[in-house]
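Thread: "does anyone have the structure for this chain?"

Original post by V.I.:
We have the sequence but no experimental structure in hand. Need at least a predicted one for the grant figures.
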Amino acid sequence: DGFSFIPLSTAHIHFNPPDSSSALSWVTPCQIPHTQHHLNELEQDIIPENLPEATSKHKLKYQQHKTEMKKGYEQYSQRNAEKTIPDITQQSPRNKVDDKCVQGEEAIIDDLTTLDRKALLQEGYADIPYNAQRSMKKSDAEIVAAEKKKQTVAEQVMIDHLSRAVISDPEQNLTSESQESVRIVPDSKITPLRFRKRTLHETKIRTHSTLTETVLSHKVQFDGRIVSRNGHDACRELIGFFFTHDQSLTVYEYRQFGKNRTNVLPFIQKNIYSHQCGRRKGKQYQLGDFYIGANLTFLSSDHPRLPESIKENTLLILRITNIDHKALDSLKADSVELEDIASQEANDRLVLNAIQDALKEQLHKRGVRILTGLGKYLQQLDKEGTGLLDKADFKQALKIFHLEVSEDDFESAWQILNGNGSGKVDYGEFKRAIIGEMNEYRKSFVRKAFMKLDFNKTGCVPLIDIRKCYCAKKHPQVISGHSTEEEIKLSFLETLKDACSKSDEVSYGEFEDYYEGLSIGIVSDEDFVNILRTPWGI
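Reply from O.Q.:
Generated one for you, tokens below.
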């Protein structure tokens, strides 16, 4: 098929191999010429004059090869265009960081990059028809489980504090005058029971300071989470109680081991606490301080039993994620609000909300890339690992990522955040203040998805596990046939991997930043929840 035969009377033998690139493979070593002159002569001689017409099979292969080469060239050109980095102001030695976290920043910031487009593919899950019946069944089951959990914790709190109140009451060590006047008979067996000395468990129950179930029932129960980039701490299930009879509070941690075994332990001991930062620093906690989204701050040094990962930070910040509104409304009538501080806090919120609204316009459709890149950049600036950076660091970060904040707005925000005058602010708090964050309803599903992936509770998930768990079967483009499951999965993994400081695993903070950026472009809470529920099966 691949040869043209010429009579032996001719001077040369002509070869017509199927592929010209393998022409020399048909020539034995003794036939290969040793000079350029002979090589040129051979090349001229092996070109036949009367080639047969190519078969349809070879034509099809050639067309496929041509198409693949064209696509490969286009992709190569596109990647080169995306790698173009704008000139950035020269950094001081103390602020030098890895260039990878800013490599996606183009000079023309209005154009979306390939990473932006791949990240926006996740929004497709919001277009899936909402299955109200299935969602309602799942929600009902979750509500029942949550109520059972709260009831278990509430019962444990009652048991702990009612028993402790009796046993630790100082009156247990006091003897009444009538008892002192009675002469104790040496033989304790003969002595009447009412005259015997009783202590600890053989104690009188009626004491003046004993707590009762009625007193402890005047409380507000709330759910909380730790504000932290440490995945293990951020996913702890905390339930707290604020008691109005003495303005004290306590927080318990609910732990579940497998399906049936649970444990409830005190996390913050019952006591009277005060704010540790902000406008209300030094003020005692009151009923008005408890609402969804409120922060409760504690000095970690005051709680020696806290985990070591939490004690590394000076402040422990608890965010209220849910609250018993019925109990709160019934008790609020007796609370007193500090009007001056409340008005100052309202003004602070107006300032920060104005900055957030301006930045959200700039982050539209680019939120994932910018927020994940900004998180990596600030983490690299934090050489000491304290989480604290100064004003110059934040200004430089905003400039590199093309986030425009006026000088006046920046100074106003800095005055609010740097309330203690130390000159340094936690970079997580800075991001939340000027960019904002998703509401607690959305964040609860982000935590739920991460907890499903992080079954070892280490705070980090290997990318290989994420690849196994992510399901793109119900993505609209897969259903319509425009894309395969593997293509959608690879798009997600590529954008998520770009957010990670390590190439083989994802931390909770990086996972949260990814969905924080995605959340900016999603208006409806249910659409956002659908984006998490569908691929992760939660």
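V.I.: this helps a lot. The beta strands are 219-226, 237-243, 248-257, 261-271, 295-299, 315-323, 388-390, 424-426, 460-462, 505-507.
O.Q.: and The domain at 213-336 is CATH 2.30.29 (PH-domain like).
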